[in-house]
Amino acid sequence: MMEPFMPQLVYIEPQALEYPLGRELKEKFEKMGIEIRQTTSHNQVRNIPGDNEQQQYRNAKSTLVVGVRKTLKFEQSKPSAEYAIPLATGCMGHCHYCYLQTTMGDKPYIRTYVNLEDIFEQATKYMEERIPEITRFEAACTSDIVGIDHLTHSLKKTIEFIGQTDFGRLRFVTKYHHVDHLLDAKHNGRTRFRFSLNSNYVIKNFEPGTSPFEKRIEAAGKVAKANYPLGFILAPLYRHEGWEEGYLELFEKLKQTLPEEATHDLTFELIQHRFTKTAKRIIEKRYPKTKLQMNEDDRKYKWGKYGRGKYVYKTDEADELKQIIESYIHTYFPQAKIEYFT
């Protein structure tokens, strides 16, 4: 049984204590006997303990910085949403392939922002600018927000905030099953709760520190029963030995678990495994024993925006992957919407 995340070390920015959530978290961690240090700003977080870079990286992943979000200009989050709503950054998971390894660089600690009132006020402005269009916010661009929400309840407050709007929608994705406190949130159908799922092989071998296969599916069943619109991101779709059976098992389990009424409005996002040269270098350094296949000769180079590209499966392999996964979706969930395959 995987326990919910608990930081081993907490840094608090002094400004965070001007907000109710900042004070509440300080008190909570003091009661738990967790070490708390002060920091003027998250950029000043130094001296993460550890004898070498590997250990410091692991310890950083169990370090939480409680701070204030100063820049209230939201990043764009196309194609899935208009904006990323900034509640947290960083993740406690150790997924070998994760793109956050390159973007978070040498500061993989987790940050949570306590000035929710400011963030909601800014979100309201963005919504007002776009009326009568719907404005969608993505809450998990740079973190697995569900993974820390049992401590902060920021996501729960955001779900209820969006639930009261006419023109706002919220979406996020998680690899964690710690969802019980979110089941009674007044979401009013305006939040799409998505789970990142994969074959058992991928979860076991490449996603340490996240919830197991069965637990995620079970949590998806609970969320469906709480009447949230539901979605799944299957990423990275990975051609391991026996992958066809591995993904078939996933759809069979989902079909057994989800209540019938939840299957009328399901979304699937399909993302094949990809890597960049930089990511490969970081992954091999951080997880030297990884079984993740990253041989450039077996892949196709796909140019991206800004002149940077990535390695994806060769066209015939990608086509086969797409066709088989989509056939499973059509078989088990004929009414589901496949948003994209990339």
In short:
The protein is α/β, with parallel strands linked by helices. It has helices spanning 20-32, 53-60, 100-103, 116-130, 146-152, 154-163, 200-206, 213-225, 243-257, 277-286, 315-332, and strands at 9-12, 35-38, 63-67, 76-77, 81-84, 88-89, 110-113, 135-138, 168-174, 191-197, 230-237, 266-272, 299-303, 309-313, 337-341. The strands form 3 sheets. It has an 8-stranded mixed sheet with strand order 4-5-8-9-10-11-12-15, covered by helices on one side. Strands 2-1-3-7-6 form a 5-stranded mixed sheet, covered by helices on one side. It has a two-stranded antiparallel ribbon with strand order 13-14.
Report on this model:
The protein has 342 residues and is of the alpha/beta class. It has a single domain (9-341), classed as pyruvate-formate lyase- activating enzyme, CATH 3.80.30. The chain has 11 helices and 15 strands. The protein has helices spanning 20-32, 53-60, 100-103, 116-130, 146-152, 154-163, 200-206, 213-225, 243-257, 277-286, 315-332; strands at 9-12, 35-38, 63-67, 76-77, 81-84, 88-89, 110-113, 135-138, 168-174, 191-197, 230-237, 266-272, 299-303, 309-313, 337-341. The strands form 3 sheets. The protein has an 8-stranded mixed sheet, with helices on one face. It has a 5-stranded mixed sheet with strand order 2-1-3-7-6, covered by helices on one side. The chain is globular and about 55 Å long. The two termini are 33 Å apart.
